[in-house]
Amino acid sequence: MLSATQLRRRSRWMLYGSLLKPIMLLTGLTLVGTVGYIIIGDYSLLDALYMTVITVGTVGFGEVVPLDAAGKLFTIFLIISSLGLVAYYISLLTHIIIDGEWRRQYQQFQLILKLNRMEDHVIVCGYGRNGRQACEVLRQNHIPYVVIEQRESNLEDAGGEVDLLLSGDATKDEILIEAGIKKAKALISALPNDADNLFVVLTARQLNPGLTIISRASDDHSIKKLKIAGANNVIMPDKLGGGHMATLVLIPDVQEFISMLSTQHNERFQITEVEATDNFNLGELNLWHTTGCTVLGIKQNDGKYRRNPQPDYILLNGERLIVMGSKEQIEVVRKVIG
After folding, report:
1. What's the 3-state SS for 195-209?
2. Which residues contact 305 (CB under 8 A, 6 or more apart)?
3. What are the Cα distances from residue 20, in Å, to 12, 23, 25, 97, 322?
4. What span, in angstroms and rounded, lies between the C-alpha atoms of 324 and 338?
5. End-to-end CA distance of the chain
6. Would you state the torsion angle of the CA atoms of residues 281, 287, 291, 292, taken in this order, to the nearest 10 degrees?
């Protein structure tokens, strides 16, 4: 990411650089004119500078010393150059003010500033159908995120819906670094091509080994490759969609309730995991009574899940307890077993 010094330098260039350029050109033209009059007209330094200023400024005063043919040709060159410089400056102001270039440059600076301040955020690669749904859930649960997209059609859609949007190729290191991957807590790769998702996962895992990575997949054969590359979870939207529709036929109310549980995450209600730092007996902990949380399951050290564990279950060090409750209740659980 850019340092504070680099940000200040970039901001100065974006906001003032384009306006300073004509001033630098005018200064250069004045120097050329002064030196030219000294050499061609044998003027003193003050007279040469004065002659250059009244010529470039097209004031119309008389010559300090009568000019010969070479001096007159040089004066014509200065007048034409100064008129061209004025025309350039006017066109530049028109481009900056009327075309909104100043506003775009300032918005780009603000984007860079926000990205440098972000931490514990989520990076969403791709703003297609799946990426848009992921962003909607993150937005509803007030989780900060940044979107990386390069397809023009999707950029137009994201422009009015996403606060932090980076236009670029998510498979490139520099784009992920600009998105703050080294300070992010998770990455969602929702690109339409499995090969691109694989490359994003590989790059992201290299840049941030502790990052949680969720990737989309279209082909069954891609799941294993994505997990080997470093994805924590691989989702196949087509399979999930078909399974979801079938479940709605069998147990519609239960499925809607589960969908609600999986997408809501706020101060009053959360489903999260808490890692145990010692061995505990669930019955002795009696978390329902002591904290108000509900124990839904346990992720064991071998990667398997135990649903609805019995009170006599011994929670081992390193196992993850999946609990449901408010943020305050879950914090109490963390203090007890974390």
Report:
1. HHHHHHHHHHHHHCC
2. 297, 298, 299
3. 10, 5, 9, 15, 60
4. 16
5. 33
6. 180
Classify burial at 37, counting beta carbons within 10 Å of its beta carbon; exposed 0-12, middle 13-18, buried 19 or more.
buried
Which domains does the chain show, CATH number per domain? 4-103 (1.10.287.70), 118-240 (3.40.50.720), 266-337 (3.30.70.1450)
Q: Mean pLDDT lowest for which of 150-164, 177-191, 293-307?
A: 150-164
Tokens of 126: 């791709």
Nearest-angstrom CA–CA distance, 189 and 216: 6
CA distance 22 to 129: 47
Contact partners, residue 35, CB within 8 Å, separation at least 6: 48
Distance CA 190, CA 56 (A): 59
Position of tokens 């914090």?
Answer: 331
In the chain, beta strands by DSSP E: 122-125, 145-149, 165-167, 186-189, 212-216, 233-235, 270-275, 280-281, 294-299, 305-307, 314-315, 320-325
Give helix then strand counts, H and E, for the chain: 15, 12
What is the rounded distance in angstroms from the CA atom of residue 324 to the CA atom of residue 333? 11
At 133-179, the pLDDT tens digits run 898 888 887 888 999 998 877 777 676 677 788 888 999 998 999 88
- Three-state secondary-structure class, residue 174: helix
CA 289 to chain centre: 43
Of 20, 108, 12, 204, nearest to 4 by C-alpha is 12
Taking the C-alpha atoms of residue 125 and residue 204, their distance in angstroms, rounded to an integer, is 11
Q: Which of 163-167, 248-252, 270-274, 334-338 has the lowest mean pLDDT?
A: 248-252
pLDDT at 204: 95
Is 149 in a helix, a strand, or coil? Answer: strand
Backbone Cα Rg of the chain: 32
Looking at the DSSP bridge assignments, the partners of residue 271 are 324
